[in-house]
Specification:
- The chain has 82 residues and is α+β, with helices and mostly antiparallel strands.
- The protein has one domain.
- The strands form 2 sheets. It has a two-stranded antiparallel ribbon. Strands 3-4 form a two-stranded antiparallel ribbon.
- β1 and β2 form a beta hairpin.
- The radius of gyration is 18 Å and the shape is elongated.
């Protein structure tokens, strides 16, 4: 996969994976790149969630559960049925 393509004078190199509708697809149609992307996105969101839901001064349980339901859970489950 070392072929390049030139469109209107702009040269593009081949990539090992691309994103199609939010799903990372590699040349062998394996799920490794997509799982890595979901993992890194989830880790950053989980860190932010931990910061805003501290025990002493953070969001209440109801608001923390709402944030989890609206942000973290969809991040994990996006394209899971594919």
């Amino acid at each position: 996969m070392e072929a390049t393509i030139e469109i209107e004078g702009i040269q593009h190199n081949a990539k090992t994976n691309i994103r199609i509708l939010g799903v990372q697809v590699d040349t062998k149609l394996k799920w490794g790149p997509h799982l890595q992307a979901v993992k890194s996105r989830y880790e950053s969101q989980l860190l932010a969630f931990g910061r805003i839901s501290k025990l002493i001064w953070g969001a209440s349980f109801v608001k923390a559960r709402l944030i989890y339901s609206l942000i973290l859970r969809p991040t994990l489950s996006y394209a899971a049925n594919v």
